[in-house]
Each structure stands twice: as C-alpha cells, then as structure tokens.
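re: ur question from the group chat, yeah i did fold both. here u go
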Amino acid sequence: MARIDAFFKLMFDQGASDLHLVAGQQPIVRLHGELERIKYDPLENDDLRAMLYEIAPEHKIKVFEETGDVDFGYEIPGVARFRANFFQQRNGVGAVFRQIPTKILTADDLGLPPILKKAAMLHKGLVLVTGPTGSGKSTTLAAIVDHANKHRKDHIVTVEDPIEFVHPSQGCLVNHREVGTHTMTFAAALRGALREDPDLILVGEMRDLETIRLAIEASNTGHLVFGTLHTSSAPKTIDRVIEVFPAEEQAQIRNSLSSGLRLVVAQNLFKRIDKRGRIAALEILVCTPAVANLIREGKTHQIPSALQTGKKFGMQTLDDAIMEHLVAKRISPEDAYDKGIDKTKFLSFLKTAPDELS
C-alpha cells in the first residue's frame, strides 16, 4: 500500500471530490465545492515528491521532470479511481487528484433529461458536453455512454487523458485508450479509431484544430461522436468550434458542423442547500433544421432565441434550468445569481442587492 493511499481513503470516507497536496502547505480536500484543510503538518517538498513518485508510472515521471506537468490515472481497487495532475510551483511540487467513482451513476441517478438517453441511441452525429472545469461533464458523459453500453450492441471507443470512468463491456464492446500511454495524441487516436470499426467514439477533450476537424468529419461519415469543450453556453460552444479554424475554412466548417451536430449540453454545478452534495443545471441545444440553418449562415447570435422557443424539441436554457432548481429550493439565490446568464431574472430572490448594484 502506497503512503499516499491514506489520504485517498480519508478523501473517500469524507466524500471529497478533490485532494490538493502542495509543498509548503497542509493537505486540502474539496468537500461539496469548498476547500477544507486536513489537520496535518505542512508537506515537505522532498517527502511529497517521494510520495507522489511512488504511485506514478516511470514514463509519467520522466514527462513531469522534463515539462513540469503531467496527467495520469491512479486506481485503488475496490475504493476509487483518481485523475492525477502533478505540477511544479514556487515551493516545489504540487498535485491535485480528482476522485472518479468506481460506480458509474446512471442517467436516472443524475436526473438527466430524457433527450440525453435518446442521444446515446443516435447512429451518427456530434454531441458536445461543455462547461467550466469541475462542472461534471465527465459524469454526464459517463452516464450517456453507460446507457448506450446497456442498450446497444455496438463498438464504443473512448480516448481520454487520462482514462476516467471505466465501462465494462455489456451490450457493447468497449475499448478505452489513454493519450500518452496507448496513443500519442487525441488526433492520432481519433484517426486510428476510424479504422477500428467504431459505432460510438468518445473524445475526452477536443483541445486542438486537428481533433475538432476529425470529430466533425467522423460525425458526418456515419459515426456517433461525443466530445467535451470548456465553454460556458451552447451558442459559445458553436462559436468556439468554428473560430478554431482559419478564416478561409470557416464557411466550410459551418456547413459541416450544421450537418453533423446533433446536441450541445452546457452545464454548471451548484452546491445543494436541501441536502449534502451538488447538482447540475443543464442548457440543452438541439440541432433542429432551423438551428442548423443559423449555424450554416453564421447567425449564431440568434441561437439564444432558438433555445427559448425550442422547448417542444427538448431544448432548455441554462437560466431556466437554474430557475427550476431555485424554485424547488435545491440551490441558493446567491449561487443562482452568480452563475445565471441573465442575472436580472434572479434579483428578486436575493435578500440584499449584489455588490455591483448596491
């Protein structure tokens, strides 16, 4: 048993989502969205480095020493998996570990809208799940892939950095590939996947032009592709995808994206006030013919209006999802105001005016 496992057990027992180990500081966990220090002496740099190196693969240590950053997955059988990030900082080494539950929560467990189950059963197209870091994108995607795994008889290929949720093959054959271990880049894995008879491809992060281009091409050639981006809303997601490309290619990409895109889910996490834990609010954009036309013609500024009027297609705005949680008293008015798009909708719920208006 590695020395660091004691911290992971504490993290698991407390229900913490993240563990921060930084030279010169006490260990810290993130519990229900807030950081809390562990009663422990500040960590010495050399001792922490030895503790971290005990669980890191040799090739990852080499990358860390050459670049100052590295990501990988670590698992304690029967407890949980963790996504690890090592980094260099002013006082020495640092590391952050995100807990990835061994048990995959289903779409029903998470209370996901029915349209996301339908997305899991699509035969082709591009589905994007977006949001800021720590917004629960991976958990939502895992639930969608889990639904596909249980209800389809197809080949699922996941490409991640590192592998997070592990899906045992059920109705589907599932192959997990990790960037840096099983393949060099997302783009290389995606190119390879197209020769591996896939039906559903999960791209853990669409972080560069080539990966985005290949994902769009795959969605237009008979494959169902799921991907993530760090964007805060559905309209901004579409703009982000298009703006990655050089100006002379953007008209062609708008056309390809309008044909391949099926769904955009933009989500944010909120601390619950009715019980312990957090809950997600989801913005859902369905690529109807009208939305596809707006993308093709470069009129993405009109997409918020399409979201407002598209409820019959399963669409919802982030503000409407937040309002539903607020009215049900699952989240606080202050959190709703802070993360809402049109903040005026939430002003009447606040007991005191926010600083910028007082």
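okk and heres the other one u asked abt
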Amino acid sequence: MKRIKRAINNFQRKEVGIKIILVTSASLSILAVFMIIAYIFRESLPAIRTVGFKGLFSFNWKPEPANPPAGSYGMLVPIIGTISATFWAILFGAPLAIGTAVYIDQMAPMAIRSVINRGIEILAGIPSVIIGWFGLTMLVPALRNVTATNGFGIMAAGVVLAVMSLPTITSISVDALRALPPELEEASLAMGATRWQTVSRALLPAARRGVLIAVILGIGRAVGETMAVQMVVGNANQVAWPWELFKPTSTLTSRIISDIGESTGVFRSVVYTEGLVLLIFAMVLILAIRMVSRERKR
C-alpha cells in the first residue's frame, strides 16, 4: 500500500509540474502578444497626437525628416495598395487553390497526389525573397512586354501573392474536404450524381466553412507579405485602385521596409502607425475566423 501511495503521489507531483509548465508557456505566449501590441501602440502615439487621424488617413505623403511636424504623412495610398494587391491575389489564388484541393482529394491517383502534395510543401517552404526575385526577373519583364508599361504594379504583386497564398489555401481546403463523412459522397453517387455534381453540389457546400477559413488565412498571408511585394509593386507614392492593374504603387509592408531605416521622430512614429494598421487588419481576420468557426460548431 505504501508503494502504491508513493507512486500515486509521485504521479500527482509530476502532473502538477507539467500543468505549471504548460500554463507558464501559454501565459508567456499571451504576454508576448500583448507586449507587441502595447509597444506598437505606444510608438504610434506621437504620430496620432502630432499628425492626427485626419492627416494620417489622407493621400498626402511628403515627409520632412528634418522638420517632421511640417510634413504630410497620409497612409491611404499604401492602405489602398495593400487592399488592391490582396484582392487580386485571392481572386487569382483562391480558385486555383480550391481546384487543386478538389483534384487532390477526389480525382488524383495516389502517385500523382503524392507528387502534388510534395510540390505544395516545397512551395510553402520557399523563402518569399526567392519568389519575389522570380517575379522581378520573369513576371515583371513579361508584363512589360505585353502591356507596354514598366511591368510593376498591382498585377505583378497580385500574381506573386497568389503563388504565396496557394499552399495555405490548398492544404486547409484538403483537410476540410477530408473531414467530411464518406457517407456524404457515397449517398450522392448512389443517387446517380456524376463526380462533378457530387463535388460541386454536395462536398464543397458541406466543406464551405473550412474552405472559407482557408481563404481568410490566405488573405492574412497576402496582407502581411513584405519582401516579395517590395520587389514587384513599384514602391511609388500614387494611388492604384484595384482596376488600375499596371500602375506602380506601394503597400503598407513595402512602405514600412522602405522607411524604417532612415526615419526618426514623428516620421518613425508614422511607420509604427502603419504597422498598427496592419495589426488591426490581422485582428479583423482572426475575428472573422473565430466567427466562422463558431458558426461551424453550431
């Protein structure tokens, strides 16, 4: 009996120790997130106080590092550029990624399925600067020859971001399709539906929430990308609406990486404010995922 009690006590002590370690790890993760948010917000306050929301959310961008309060620090150009590039990235990438997921789950032979999965894994692991380099050396010259423009702009950024978001959307969409009960497909085929009818009218509608989460995560991947966009978007301080495909512009990430090294004072605080806007975008996407997931649980 003493040995049994001693063993139980040892097990309980180990369990308590493991719980303490896990709680500490989770608390450190939460603390790190709050510290990042607090730091970016604190660094953004000088710009908010000096420039004001009206000045920050305008199209005027004429920073004066030597005399910061006298400059113009409008962020609408990179905000619109970020939204435009992300829009085309998802428009190009989401249908291709969902189609690839359907092919992998429903139609591809096992050997081809394995090859495609390995290719998607490799694509997900390629550094963004490499994809941006291919965009700069291959895509931009091709667009320049076809469109008689300089090749930089929203179209180039959208294509590059579509390639980068494709692995995320594809992998999660495949998981969403595989999570469906096999009886759903069997019942559809037993009713005389073709393979395409089964996919389009039974499987995809049933997996729509999982696919929607995949698309939202793909949007988050596109919004936060830096180096690849920096290399192909043109980095010009001019507004490029979603329909102005070959007009060079800038995004929040490209503006941050261009200005953070030489900025000081209020100018530097404005750069942190751009990071704060990106952080708000990320929080909105996380909230959207939570809402979709909650609806799915119901």
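fwiw on the second one: The chain has two domains: 2-50, 72-297. The longest strand covers residues 61-62. idk if thats what u expected
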